[in-house]
Automatic annotation (TrEMBL):
It holds the Pfam family APH. Gene3D superfamilies: 3.90.1200.10, Phosphorylase Kinase, domain 1 (3.30.200.20). InterPro entries: Aminoglycoside_PTrfase, Kinase-like_dom_sf, Pseudomonas-type_ThrB. Residues 28-262 form the Aminoglycoside phosphotransferase domain. Signal peptide: none annotated. One of its GO terms (molecular function) is transferase activity. Keywords: Transferase. This is Aminoglycoside phosphotransferase family protein.
Length: 363
């Protein structure tokens, strides 16, 4: 939703007032750089909160999202873990969600104090912390009963479905596609063999289903203010049963592309091996011994798959008129797709070194 369509502050104050806060609201401001939901920081005299409008086009099952988060919060309380997740703030009627007069869905969470997000990793120490916090989450979540969690976003990481949708859109636009689009379609088609690799491993019993975060990019990891330690995971809408390889691949995609997803020169995109090794090392301190040999062998496939998947999604959204990911200009999703495909190409060039690194780190 564009900034011009955001509710005015009085409307936001009315919505915030429905939740069981500690005191009267004294301030509301936009928060974060999210591409999907609209997020606001809410302040009272003593505390901070996060008010969020859930994008029902992207997340048509908001009740399932909140049910998963309430279960996750309940179960994590029973486990001694140093990874925090935001506490859900219920409405004054005891509900996890509320709807405004136009039917939009809202929720409230605590704002974890004395934390910050990083726009990029500046040291091996920060990278290790990223891996450690994700590994700690996976290790803790491995103890949770899968049957308590529903699929809030069933198509998440269904790469074959994303590819099929792209092919459908491309067919409808025959004769009207630019050379840039044609080049991306060719690059994606050349890599179609990657799409089913992890699903095949799942079908063959070479990997297992666990509770996953679903979107562990750098923006969704909170660090202590001094940057010394990663302390929390946020943006938990996609917590559901899945493959931890997808999570790790997504984390590495986000953190190891040093130029970021919106760089101006897609051809200069590179996958940073030093950041990758530090993240894997931090992750392995928590997950070594929990992943099977077969799962470790599929990690490279995940590292190559996730940027390919995201490139497919960016290109599809561009061709459909930028209806899913929020954009600042019409060609932005096209450029983002080019960046992701350039990242895949660099990962492929470094395949041998990455496979050796994975084997060494998890040995």
């Amino acid at each position: 939703m564009s900034a011009s369509r955001r509710p005015p502050t009085p409307a936001l104050e009315t919505i915030a007032g429905r939740f069981d806060l500690d005191a009267q609201v004294v301030g509301i401001r936009p928060l974060g750089r999210g591409l999907i939901n609209d997020t606001f920081a809410v302040s009272t005299a003593a505390r901070g909160y996060v008010l969020q409008r859930i994008n029902s086009h992207v997340f048509p099952r908001p009740e399932q999202i909140m049910a998963n988060l309430l279960v996750l919060t309940e179960l994590l309380k029973q486990d001694e873990t140093d990874v925090r997740i935001p506490r859900i703030i219920l409405t004054q009627d005891g509900a996890a969600l509320t709807r405004d007069d136009s039917g939009e869905v809202w929720r409230m969470m605590e704002l974890i104090p004395n934390t910050k997000t990083l726009t990029r990793l500046e040291s091996a120490g920060e990278a290790r912390e990223v891996g450690h916090v994700l590994g700690t989450f996976h290790r803790t979540a491995a103890k949770l009963p899968l049957e308590r969690f529903g699929r809030s976003l069933p198509e998440l990481h269904e790469t074959g479905t994303y590819l099929e949708r792209l092919h459908q859109v491309v067919v409808t636009q025959a004769g009207r596609r630019s050379s840039a689009v044609e080049a991306l379609v060719e690059q994606i088609t050349r890599r179609a063999h990657r799409v089913g690799a992890l699903e095949a491993a799942k079908r063959d019993g070479r990997t297992k289903t666990r509770i996953t975060h679903g979107d562990p990019k750098l923006d969704n990891i909170l660090f202590a203010q001094d940057g010394s330690k990663a302390v929390a995971l946020i943006d938990l809408d996609t917590v559901q049963p899945g493959l931890v390889q997808h999570d790790l691949g997504d984390c590495l995609r986000s953190c190891c592309n040093r130029r970021g997803e919106a760089g101006a020169a897609p051809d200069a995109t590179r996958f940073d091996l030093a950041s990758c090794e530090a993240i894997l090392s931090g992750y392995a301190t928590e997950m070594r011994g929990l992943l099977s040999h077969a799962e470790i062998e599929t990690l490279f496939e995940a590292i190559a798959l996730i940027p390919l998947e995201l490139g497919i999604r960016f290109l599809t959204d561009y061709l459909e008129g930028n209806r899913y990911f929020r954009v600042e200009f019409p060609e932005q999703n096209l450029i983002k797709a080019q960046i992701q495909l350039a990242l895949v190409a660099d990962i492929e060039r470094k395949e041998s070194r990455l496979r050796q690194m994975i084997a060494r780190v998890f040995d």
